[in-house]
Amino acid sequence: MIEPGSGWPEDAATTDTPVATNAAEVVWLADGAAGDLTELSARSSVCRACPRLVAWREQVAADRRRAFADQPYWGRPVPGWGDPRPRLLIVGLAPAAHGGNRTGRIFTGDRSGDWLFASLHRLGVAVRPTSEHAGDGQRLLGTRMVAAVRCAPPDNKPTTDERDICQHWLRAEVETVNDTIRAVVALGGYAWQAALRVLGQIGYRIPSPRPAFGHGATVELIAADQGRGSAGGGTERPLLLAGSYHPSQQNTFTGKLTEPMLDAALRRATDYAGLPDPDSASGG
Ligand code: SF4
After folding, report:
1. From the CB of residue 68, how many other CB atoms can be counted at a distance below 10 Å?
2. How far, in Å, CA of 157 to CA of 184, rounded?
3. 180-231, pLDDT tens digit by residue?
């Protein structure tokens, strides 16, 4: 496991970053960092609130896969990553054991990430077609990524308790970028449900019955957005939630998800969000 403050590129945490060791501490530390993405990334990246996941991620980091035996593994929770003022937020399930859990960057170092970053590059919101490791020069333009659960889970299956605890980090992050996001893409049904839950928690009206996930599914959500867009305040701003099949090998190997399908689902969201934005081309 990479120790905080040991010089790993893009590591926001230091030896002074407070560590959550239970659900109540996650709530307290997430709420306390809402509004500050750097601090939120730092605090979430040292979280130890779920004993099963802490043990798993650190065991994987110690054992390593043979192909990566010469590499240090991150072995910590993987924080949100990308543009700090995003118009588009992409939500995944959780880091892969030998992907994000190895590289410390979400969707980086595994085949799912290869598919996703290639698509984002084709759409003009990732400056490189691949994301290989922290510090590789990759940047997202107007776009940010976050996982519903920040620690790699065994079999990609967090428990309901783990999901609910980690949701506080997700809620704090979505709340922090809510001023700028125009669209959310959920990669898979798990991320779709997580996105609906936190968007509901921060004030979006969730239709009943809840919108169903599907590849290409979209729903416009409305939030009361006081003080924005009109002199008297109280205007309503829609947010697009778009669904895509997850670019897992299970989906891409079988042809359930093709590159044109992934591009189309993401393009729906980038178009809605006004991306790529010429003004952000030099930002990141
Ligand atoms: S899954 Fe989330 S809440 Fe649980 S230890 Fe990891 S970062 Fe903390």
Report:
1. 13
2. 22
3. 999 999 999 999 999 999 999 999 999 999 999 999 999 999 986 543 443 4
Residue 54 Cα: closest atom of ligand 1? 5
Ligand 1 atom, smallest distance to 153 CA: 1
- Phi and psi at residue 145, to the nearest 5°: -125, 145
DSSP 84-123: SS-SEEEEES---TTTHHHHSSTT-SSHHHHHHHHHHHHT
Tell the residue nearest (CA) to atom 8 of ligand 1: 47
Q: Given pLDDT bands bounded at 50, 70 and 90, which one contains residue 49?
A: very high
pTM over 0.70: yes
Mutation to probe ligand 1, out of 46, 166, 170 (largest number of atoms < 8 A from CB): 166
DSSP letter for 1, please: -
Residues near 126 by Cβ (< 8 Å), separated by ≥ 6? 117, 120, 138, 139, 140, 141, 143
Euclidean distance between CA atoms 17 and 40, whole angstroms = 10
194 alpha carbon to ligand 1 midpoint, in Å?
15
Q: Which fold has domain 78-280?
A: Uracil-DNA Glycosylase, subunit E (3.40.470)
Ligand 1 — pocket residues by CB below 6 A? 26, 44, 47-50, 53-54, 77, 149-151, 162, 165-166, 169
Neighbours of 154 (CB within 10 A): 14
Distance 109 CA to ligand 1 centre (A): 20
* Minimum-distance ligand 1 atom for the alpha carbon of 57: 6
Domains in the chain: boundaries: 78-280
- Convert the pLDDT of each residue in 128-170 to its tens digit: 999 999 999 999 999 999 999 999 999 999 999 999 999 999 9
SS3 assignment for 184-227:
EEEECHHHHHHHHHHHHHCCEECCCCCCCCCCCCEEEEEEEECC
